[in-house]
């Protein structure tokens, strides 16, 4: 009988009241704060918190019903889908159950989020689509961590998944993540390991009825291996925001905060899709509105877009610069001062035909063939000055320019892979043109004319089963500067015009005192440049911009009857008053409305201050009391206070109530209906939680083998009997009550033997002159509980609404001086 104290074989851990799942949830939430380095705002973190709590509660409740781990994980994923449906669709069954229509809507939202992720520049705006993607990703992480830490009993392996959560924003952000995110993540993970270590220590001593305390080495190794594979796959596949920090495996690196990197089109999309505009340049000395060129793209890749082509070369960019192709050295130069503000890139933007540059940076190079100034490493440049020729030839001069098939490098003529439909369309558009300029003008007019139904929108939806260029020019006809410039440049090459795509900025807006122009991320733009012998690269902008930021060069303006040139598009200059943040406001949004009106209204309103203050105070108090409670239960601090009955009865309900109020207030930031549902669910689950806490306290008192161990064991058995609808009259003796318990619940022989041992321990503790707890008491109690579960299982209603909590009764015990009461 030497193994009498070992736990019963079929006994399972009390995961519902164990601290492990809750600390695991806290670890996931703390790790999620690392995303603050790549996502603006904080509302997304509130949503993540609500989702993590829901997933953890679901897992804890289902494990309490002894559901198998795979089904628990499936149920948690279903709860995640329900929350996504409630938060991001209006087509769910009863507004939250994901039906076919709701799943389709969720697919559309996630598709939009993927497009924003692929084109975003960190930190991205926390749009509803981005929030949906983050909630889904972190929700799946929470399910995986919960499964690893609780069901698999391998919390150390969950560290790999949490590390992946940190790796994603760390690889995307240009700056270091906030230090406090690492502190929170490390502290929460250390607490998870400490709680699990305490649990394993007690199981090793035979004081917990846990069947998972041993034999976990192989499973933990297997789970850890799987987690490592998942972490690597997610880490390599999810880091796709902008062009920064992509893990090795494909794609271009570079790019940066508000800057154009090696993948110019990607950074262009990122700046245009940025939630809030950022100032990138102050320009002084610019006498007229014109485009600022940062880089040029020469190679067209079918169904993918434009790339740089041959690597840039050239000479050091200092002082006088060699002339570019077509530049005959004529024209008046203008001195322009450019002050970078929030610009980190490989490229140094310029205007017109640049002749000279003065910069304190000595590692830039000038490629006269491509017309760009660049550096081998990404950097934040100092202020610099250029001398540039801004004047342009007349329309007649361009019409008289000779047509030369080899005027520039052959790469500017290639259009391999273009479908015949596009070739035929290009030839029809320029039909009747007798010179290169008229061909270019007809192509520009084709995209700008209202009769062709092209529409400017930042959000594009094309047919993924068709060639992207063909679909744009013949079917969808919806896009922004990237699509328009790409399409016209290809069509220009089709009709024999050497062309390239230029990436840079429009003219921006004038400052309040007109002393300089402000260029922001909202001014990011792409246009077409076509080469004319003896004149160089001329600008043609096919994008139908109607917000006043477009620039029409003189040679494309129509001549009015009086002889004055009238621009075909407005090029007005708007002044902006300095704001408190120092940022200039864009002149208008893409749809023609005022820039401020284009901002999400929810951000302008925001929650009332009292709501945020109350939420902060409640969460702070809940966190402090929870930390005190956990440290006391782990024995890190003295538990003298917890040994007092009134303290236990007040502290634990207070912690639970504060967390419930905190979750309700946090959910109210999203929806008061959601808050009401969560609070109602918390109230309904309160009896179950209270019973779980009491059970945990009883079992820990028994495991400690202290003076009150026997009384705690008897109190737990009486509560188990009451929960099963068989209360024991207080007038009965211990042995009479034991016989009633064995008879009412049909205990088997193992249960009866355990009950005899419990009764013997109780009587010795009560009546012995020198009471010492029986080392076999934990095993005996586990045997009785196992027999109760086997022969008198609890119904779901009895689990949710335990009678020992709702209708407590006095246990039949002997009132003796030796008896020490056990709280709760």
UniProtKB/TrEMBL annotation:
Transmembrane segments: 21-39, 45-64, 71-97, 129-149, 156-173, 179-197, 218-238, 610-643, 650-667, 673-690
Residues of the Transglutaminase-like domain: 473-544
Compositionally biased spans, kind Polar residues: 569-588
Entry keywords, A to Z: Hydrolase, Membrane, Protease, Transmembrane, Transmembrane helix
Chain spans, region Disordered: 303-334, 551-603
Pfam families, per database record: TgpA_N, Transglut_core
Any one GO molecular function term: peptidase activity
Alphabetical GO biological process terms: proteolysis
Gene3D superfamilies, A to Z: 3.10.620.30
Entry-linked InterPro entries: Bact_TGase-like, Papain-like_cys_pep_sf, TgpA_N, Transglutaminase-like
Protein name: Transglutaminase-like enzyme, putative cysteine protease
The organism of origin for this protein: Lentzea jiangxiensis
